[in-house]
Fold:
Amino acid sequence: MSGINKVILVGHLGKDPEVRHLEGGVAVASFPLATSETFNKDGRKVEQTEWHNIVMWRGLADVAAKYLQKGKLVYIEGKLRTRSFEDKEGIKKYTTEVVAENFTMLGRKTDFETEAAPRTNGGRTNDTDGYRNDADDLPF
Amino acid sequence: MSGINKVILVGHLGKDPEVRHLEGGVAVASFPLATSETFNKDGRKVEQTEWHNIVMWRGLADVAAKYLQKGKLVYIEGKLRTRSFEDKEGIKKYTTEVVAENFTMLGRKTDFETEAAPRTNGGRTNDTDGYRNDADDLPF
Amino acid sequence: MSGINKVILVGHLGKDPEVRHLEGGVAVASFPLATSETFNKDGRKVEQTEWHNIVMWRGLADVAAKYLQKGKLVYIEGKLRTRSFEDKEGIKKYTTEVVAENFTMLGRKTDFETEAAPRTNGGRTNDTDGYRNDADDLPF
Amino acid sequence: MSGINKVILVGHLGKDPEVRHLEGGVAVASFPLATSETFNKDGRKVEQTEWHNIVMWRGLADVAAKYLQKGKLVYIEGKLRTRSFEDKEGIKKYTTEVVAENFTMLGRKTDFETEAAPRTNGGRTNDTDGYRNDADDLPF
DNA sequence: TTTT
DNA sequence: TTTT
Structure:
């Protein structure tokens, strides 16, 4: 039976997205994202930061490469995926990543501007290689 | 700044919850949860299953121990937490877990009944049991 | 700036989906969905049910019409939309609907079977019309 | 059977929270929240704004009153609730609200500062009145 | 009635 | 490695 595997994050990029192209030209972008939580411990403020490995595919990777940068605040929706790999010593390891399905930039307008291509909005972007533009012919 | 770190899963338990008690008596339950996704690959149906390590604390662990069992369908809300540990060979490894904040049992009513304690509903349970003080006595 | 408007529901259909076709042939399905919450009030169990107006468009409406039925348990993801209309007396009223973006059937396998098309799984279906259209070749 | 009724919003307050106190002293805060979506229609950018009626109870209302203001960007998690009421003409109407369960302030640090009480972080706050009440000793 |  |  089908299930639900959904992750919702709001946090800051720890680095610029790193983009690779697979054989076939498929783009893959990845970057670390920090989500911080502040709580009281014995009357003192303590901040705890969690780091997430974000992965974006195809068109979503292209948009990420264009608009996301280290330090930016972003809303990300995706799913968890754990995969194994061998490190340089040949030891099998596991890593859990958040495969993004869409994202929305948050924060000030200036955060969304790049030298080359100033934008006037933070847009939601989907991993659907097109636009999900339900809106074109709606009657409302 | 605070961020958001939220996971929403609907899946089946791969095993009965395993409950430990830390020094101080704090209960911790853990179990694997499978979320399956079915998609078409070249006209054929392919099922892909993702396994998640679920961790529940305190009162939530107690409820899990009492009512969750291998095979049950459950809705879980929580957050991601990656921690490192050393395996038996002394090699540093990382594991990402979903620390549950609440859960709701789904499925037939009979799925919620245990021999000892028949229940008439699936309830939402929270990790609050007093205080949200997940942090105070954690071993991490 | 862009924002987030997301609704996640797990509940039972109160009626079979009702499908209309707009000029242009666009399909729209709608149905009520009940989400129940049980809590303790003075030591007694009380159930509170909330009803939601679900709306599905295009391909998603077609799949809904084909597979969803009164009583089925379903996971729905969508967004809130409030619109105004005039009732028969000409009084302006407002209604808030959940415009579904995808759904996944939950529950027993037999719940997903129809006379015409027995199915072996519940699939996730998206309102993306052309991309990610799991729906094209269902039974999924 | 229990279900899930969850709403996740990121948007701006349209007005300052309005706080009332019920008999018994229970605080209720309410305010409109705008979530905007930008999409392309015939090559032109179109923005569509959805307005949500947010309601917060008890300790959460107090924190809202203290820190939320018109224009602020906020993440809100809650549930849908539709209730009926009679307008001045005695006509029965329905309204759907988002009953917030917790919120997190987003945006620039300066957005979280008030004249009276400059703050250094945005915190997550919960509607649990006594438990998990981060709110007691704010500024958190 | 917000924001970009 | 982010942000406040």
